[in-house]
Amino acid sequence: MRRTRNLIVTVAALGILGGSVLVAKGLLADGGTGGSGGGALAGVFQEEPKASPTPTGPTPEELAAIERAKRVKALDAALKKYASGRPEFSVAVLDRKTGETYAYRGDEKYETASVVKVQVLACLLLTAQDDDRKLTGSEKALADKMIRFSDNDATTSLYGKVGRINGLTACNKRLGLTQTKVSSSWGLTRTTVKDQVTLLSQLVDEKSELSETSREYANKLMSTVAPDQDWGVPAAAEDGEDATVKNGWLQRSTESNLWIINTVGQITDADTDVSIAVLSHTNQTMPSGQNLVEKVAKLTRTHLKY
Hints:
Layout: E1 5-16, E2 19-30, E3 40-46, H1 60-83, E4 89-95, E5 100-104, E6 110-111, H2 116-130, H3 137-148, H4 152-161, H5 164-174, E7 190-191, H6 193-202, H7 212-222, E8 242-252, E9 258-268, E10 273-283, H8 286-304
Antiparallel strand pairs: 1-2, 2-3, 4-5, 4-10, 6-7, 8-9, 9-10
Helix pairs in contact: 1-8, 2-3, 2-4, 2-5, 3-4
């Protein structure tokens, strides 16, 4: 009689929450009268339970972006409401703490009036640096009159020293101004609030073309303007903060003798470092224009919360 060998394998699988158990059992049986023999093999394999995915919320950066968007939306709405029925204006705020720039009608061009004097000062300082020299006593006296007292004769003299249209345009390019067109009549130079906050940032940025000595000198002049010049951007400063400013005003014959009123400057302390520019025209009077640019500057602070 031919001997027969049979192999029977039974496999049972049991599912368990979070994993599985696999049981394998082998049974070896010999048929016939000569006797019986058997071998059994059993194995158990346990997988590690799989953890459920942990829900994750927005990152701190995403939360900051969400909050920023809310503030921008609120400021846009506030400025749009305030602008209704009032002279045309634009405003920009560059926050050096966050690196963000806000602009309302940021690409609209306005005549600078006397705020162009900051450009003339920056160009004078660059020119002296290029010549590897300090400002002369005469240049310092003229710069002091130009910035602190808004003296027009001093400005005309320094405008000539820096090369008038070509010289000032070249300096503007080095300082990153891309939307400013210099006029032969320096007060009629056209610019945007975006360009103005770019210029202001060059007066404090360590990577600026302006040296540390030049930046400190510009800050000294703009932080010590005459009392009758101390309006505009400083109105948005809080107690204990430092403010710099240069204002511009011009009764424009081509606009029915209405007023151009502009203000540019910075507000700084340990927690705040912003550059602000507000440009406007068609103001009925100089005082009403001053009130307008100050109100706009204050609105940026209320809603951007810098």
